Amino acid sequence: xPPTPQTRxxxxxxxxxxxxxxxxxxxxxxxxxxxxxxxxxxxTCVSIFALLAWNGIGHHTVDYADTYxxxxxxxxxxxxxxxxxxxxxxxFRSKLQKDPR
Length: 101
What we know:
Elements: E1 14-15, E2 18-19, H1 25-58, H2 65-96
Antiparallel strand pairs: 1-2
Helix pairs in contact: 1-2
């Protein structure tokens, strides 16, 4: 017998078909740190190529280590600071909405 609208639980949000609810504590931490890790490397890569063009076109001598310190690290920390509370909230909500059966 299919569930009626009164017994059906509301569906959680998804991003590209990936559910954003129902994670354990370990999964939430893993997703938070993975998002920060990916952001660090993606922004660092883009900033290295931008600095490569800046140094090549303008004959500048800016150090490439600045991209890690000034772009990649702050971006990774910002994403981690946003992702940890977000996934902690999602985990807490899933614990409150658990079906006791």
